[in-house]
Structure to design on (362 residues):
């Protein structure tokens, strides 16, 4: 087992005008489950492939433990990768698929059999060992791909959207299984997904990428409570955080018809940047419904979930109108078409610079 370090690792594809991954700095602890997340094209697969040795590194370095692997071929890195499409050999049985890398490495038959059987037991695949991949369900194939990685007992697991070919329900249950398995095995894992819910539920820590640039690395809890910038604020959380551009007033911001207090540091930082507004983030669960004041919302859609509900509405804004999502108690769900006044809880708001997007509040 080992830690993994991206030390300003950069990948510029031939003919590209800007790096697909730009000076990535990331330290993953021994045994940690780190999830790389971001929208399509942000450089997740490229980062993982650089770590695997499948992609050249054009600047910086990559280390596994204290070994500099930047220019080592994939086979010398002691990693195992699980791909989105599983890449199983169709003509081989499940057992042979799982044991293939060990066979190539010259291990004896009895050892291979034992390791394959151990992994099969962990993954609930024992009864399928003699089948061919085509006689398996998607979820079973996914587990064979996992098994193939596990039998090698690598220093690092790499997984690139391994659940994206499963249906929604199976994806949720498999997510839990993979996280539990990783915890049992204690093998350092870098897991790539575009799905922020997957990232938040699986990772010890989450790293958010955008346009090849690392935005924030944090525990899921901190990522939710203290997003570092507007991008992370809007990307993490479902339904997404409401982001409202509001004018700065004395000691606070003018939030609809109310003044919401904001720390002096945040206001000073905004003024220093020459901004007359800040962008305030409010999660749907951090609004209180009021008789008057605050934002006036016209309710468009109400999603009743029993214990609570989500109200989707619009509020007048500088440029036309703005969508707002509010969580309300299950017994206080408003009528569609009605008007609602909501005020953010001052202690729960997030303040961002309108011009740079950086977080200004603590
Ligand atoms: N082999 C390649 N050659 C040139 N550009 C590539 C190649 N692979 C990926 N890219 C570009 O690099 C960027 C990052 O891609 P990728 O790492 O696959 O993103 P993600 O996995 O986050 O969707 C994208 O703009 C993509 O078009
Ligand atoms: Mg990808």
């Amino acid at each position: 087992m080992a830690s993994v370090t991206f030390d300003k690792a950069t990948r510029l594809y031939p003919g590209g005008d800007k790096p697909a991954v730009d000076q990535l700095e990331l330290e993953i602890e021994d045994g940690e489950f780190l999830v790389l997340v971001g929208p399509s094209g942000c450089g997740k697969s490229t980062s993982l492939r650089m770590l695997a040795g499948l992609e050249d590194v054009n600047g910086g370095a990559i280390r596994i433990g204290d070994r500099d692997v930047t220019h080592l071929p994939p086979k010398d890195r002691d990693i195992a990768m699980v791909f989105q499409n599983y890449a199983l050999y169709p003509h081989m049985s499940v057992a042979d698929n799982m044991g293939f890398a060990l066979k190539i490495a010259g291990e004896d038959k009895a050892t291979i059999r034992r390791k394959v059987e151990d992994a099969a037991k962990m993954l609930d695949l024992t009864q399928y060992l003699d089948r061919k991949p085509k006689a398996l369900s998607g979820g079973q194939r996914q587990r064979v791909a996992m098994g193939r990685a596990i039998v090698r007992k690598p220093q690092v697991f790499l997984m690139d959207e391994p659940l994206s070919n499963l249906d929604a329900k199976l994806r949720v249950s498999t997510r839990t299984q993979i996280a539990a398995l990783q915890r049992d095995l204690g093998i350092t894992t870098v897991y790539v997904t575009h799905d922020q819910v997957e990232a938040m539920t699986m990772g010890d820590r989450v790293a958010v990428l955008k346009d090849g640039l690392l935005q924030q690395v944090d525990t899921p809890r901190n990522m939710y409570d203290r997003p570092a910038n507007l991008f992370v604020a809007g990307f993490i959380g479902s339904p997404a955080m409401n982001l409202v551009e509001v004018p700065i007033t004395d000691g606070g911001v003018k939030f609809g018809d109310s003044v919401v207090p904001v720390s002096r540091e945040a206001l000073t930082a905004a003024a220093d940047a020459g901004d007359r507004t800040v962008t305030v983030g409010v999660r749907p669960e951090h609004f209180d419904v009021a008789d008057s004041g605050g934002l006036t919302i016209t309710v468009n859609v109400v999603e009743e979930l029993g214990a609570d509900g989500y109200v989707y509405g619009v509020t007048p804004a500088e440029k036309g109108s703005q969508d707002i999502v509010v969580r309300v108690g299950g017994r206080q769900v408003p009528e569609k078409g009605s008007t609602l006044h909501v005020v953010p809880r001052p202690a729960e708001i997030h303040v961002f610079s309108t011009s740079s997007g950086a977080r200004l509040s603590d």
About this structure: The chain is about 25% helix and 35% strand. The pocket of magnesium ion (ligand 2) is lined by residues 44-45 (CB under 6 Å). The first strand starts at residue 4 and ends at 11.
